[in-house]
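Morning. Coffee machine broken again, so started the prediction first thing and wrote up yesterday's gels while waiting. Chain of 689 residues, entered below exactly as on the submission form.
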Amino acid sequence: MALIALAAVVAFYPAFSSSFVCDDLLIVVHNPRTKSLDLWTILTTSYWGDQDRRVSLYRPLTILSLAFDRALAGAVTGAGLNPAMYHATNLAAHLLCCLAVYVLMRRHFGGAHTALFAGLLFAVHPVHSDVVYGIVNRSDSFATLFVVIGIILYLDWRKGSGMGPLNWRLVGANVCYLFALGFKEMAVTLPLLLLLADLVMFESGARAGRLSALFRRYCGFAIVLAAHVVLRAVCVGRLGSGLQTFAGVPAQTRMLTMYVVVADYLRALFFPFHMSADYPYNQWPATFHTDLYDARVVAALFVIGAAMLVGLALAVRRQRAELFWFIFFWAALLPVLNIVPISVVKGERMLYLPSIGACALAGAAVYGLWRRSRVVAGVGLLVVIASFAVLCRMQGQPYRSQSSFANYLCRVQPRFPFAYYLRARNFGDAGRIDAEIADYGLALALMPDYKNALHSRALARCKRSDFAGAEQDFRALIELPPVNPRVHGNLGWLLMTQGRFSEAIVEYNAALALVDAKLEMDPGRTTGSGAGSNRAVSRPDMLRQALLDYENDDSESNPIRVWEYAEILANRGRAYIGARDHATARGDIIMSLQIAQHDIGTEPGRERFTATLSLVAECNLALRLHSEAALDLKRLAELVPERRAALLLKELECWLACGELENAREAASRLEQAGGTVPDRLKVKLEKR
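Came back before lunch.
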């Protein structure tokens, strides 16, 4: 066991110098649920939460483990986002899996040598790199760990005496099933794996089909699965994953494509080269296989047929242990074969649990060679282990940083639009705007309707003052339904900065109308200009609640947030100011102010509220509503202490303009207390009055 652990550490030691990359940033760094050990919230929300509402997965124990790592890292190092702590947990989970595989084989499927060889191969197999190096992919290793422990406990119970349904080993296997499902859905096949073990490994397999025996053995697993399904449906809102790459694809196309994927999985198990940490999920329709006589489909069928012949030979020769592991591989692979469409078509991390079967078969083959020639078997195994360990260390290089991961994806997946999009984002963070725009162009060349890339390029072009190019991108986005209100809002901002106020107002109207349609509201009543807008001012709380409900609507992939709606309203008010229509502008800005005032407790909310309040004061001054402007300026002086003196001076002028002498004197007093000076011209007015 120590040798297996040592091999795994040597192969994956570079994980300690890895960082947060790709999904790690969404699930770990920017996920509020990992910032505290709020067990109730973690258990009752989906895996992605608000990060991506298209995908509805339920993996509460994975999120809980990430939250625990964050708390532990904060207590030990003072930095909750220390990636080394998370990678240490990932490596520990892999080590425990390796040891569990060794124990399972040693106790139930062969001697020490076979278990050692299989454990070593599993410990250093390169197809496991993505699971060990990718922090969020610990869901695979932890789920596999509890599946293997569950198998060990079940087989101990089957081989032991006193096979009552309440035996602690059987109960423990059921608990392991519950934990495994809490980490990842692919553990659903555990009861099937146990049934296979019953049928293949035990002489009483022929009698195992009696209803009473089946009920005693599997009713606990059925209860656990049912409870998990109900809990998932309640917490997530649906049973499926939501985003399904094969949704609407004909069954024949799905089947032929998965033949090719499975054949490549088999290739990767024996020749682990040309692998990738990610695959072009958003470009699969262009690479689906629809023709049975396609060269890759024919080759895939040949490879799978050869594998089936191996299984047939094992069955004919009655090699029970080897036959079990052969079937184990295919049974464990079932959840990711898109028989029921899921969000992923291909990924080597899907092989983590099935690879146990492949490594067990390889271990048995090595042991057979060992009995004939220890030198040949030993040297051959040593070469394979060393080669695999080197490949594992090489696979860890892309995980050093987000930038290296993006460069790696662009190199190994040159037809993957997301790879260039990811690299463009990195260029943008580094201030390399020209390179950012160029990479967005590469992504769009591969996928012209890539909305995220088109929107991001438009924003990058704004930074480069390429307003014509940015406008072209925004208008292209509007032609790709469904249109996000943010697109109209950003285009409105772009037009407003160029002084094209009437065109900007049109875009802001379109943005607000889209949201109002979602809220099932009458745009003229809630956000219309003029009198309609003024009437809406009296019901801001109703609108805010509707916006909050929309923001928390799990059925929406990217709902607009309350502050974004308020910002669009405020910007439309700015456009009306630019068009010299201060009366209409005032209605929009007051509505925005009343919606946004609830968020004043946060720093971004305070900044937005202050900017909007300044616009209200500007409108009131333009409309000669001096007393209302004075009240706005007074509140601004409290919110912006660094500008207190200047704001109080303006307030004083407003009170004097409307003849409010007492309020003017009070403002003058506050101005002097703030270190300001009342100008002589105003002192004269105060004295005259």
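Confidence is low (pLDDT under 50) at residues 522-538. Going to sketch it on the whiteboard this afternoon.
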